[in-house]
Each structure stands twice: as C-alpha cells, then as structure tokens.
Amino acid sequence: MKRFNFNKNRLHIRRTDKISEALYYSNEDYMREIDEYFGVLFVKHPHLRNASAPTVFVASDDKNVFESLRKEFEFPIIS
Fold it and tell me: In the chain, at which residue ranges do the beta strands (DSSP E only) sit?
C-alpha cells in the first residue's frame, strides 16, 4: 500500500473567470495559508520535516501566477 505524502499541498488560484464573483486574494494570502499548514503539520508530525521537501502544486487560469510564486517563495512550486 502506498503511503500519502503530507509534504505536498495544492492551490487553485482563479484570477480571470471569478474576478466579479469572488474576493481577490494575493499570492501572499495563499502562501501564508501554505506556511501555516506546513508549520502545523511539522509541529504535529516532526518526523515528516525530514521526509521530503514541502511542495506546492498550483493550478491557475493566470499564467503570471506561477512565475511570481516561484520568485517570491521558498517552496518548490509545480504547475
């Protein structure tokens, strides 16, 4: 049985099609939540800290999001 890797997280950042329907959240808003998730995860499960590098998978309708996130944040960003 394959074990789930908790050092991975995912985001779906919608910037173009939901602009009039939802609040705008900056990259910093999203990454603050990711930082908090990994912080809580590693406090509760310290053995995971050394298991593998935290990775964030990002889906977005705005191609600029990926480059911006990769420049601004330390986590590996997969698009």
Answer: 8-13, 55-60, 77-78
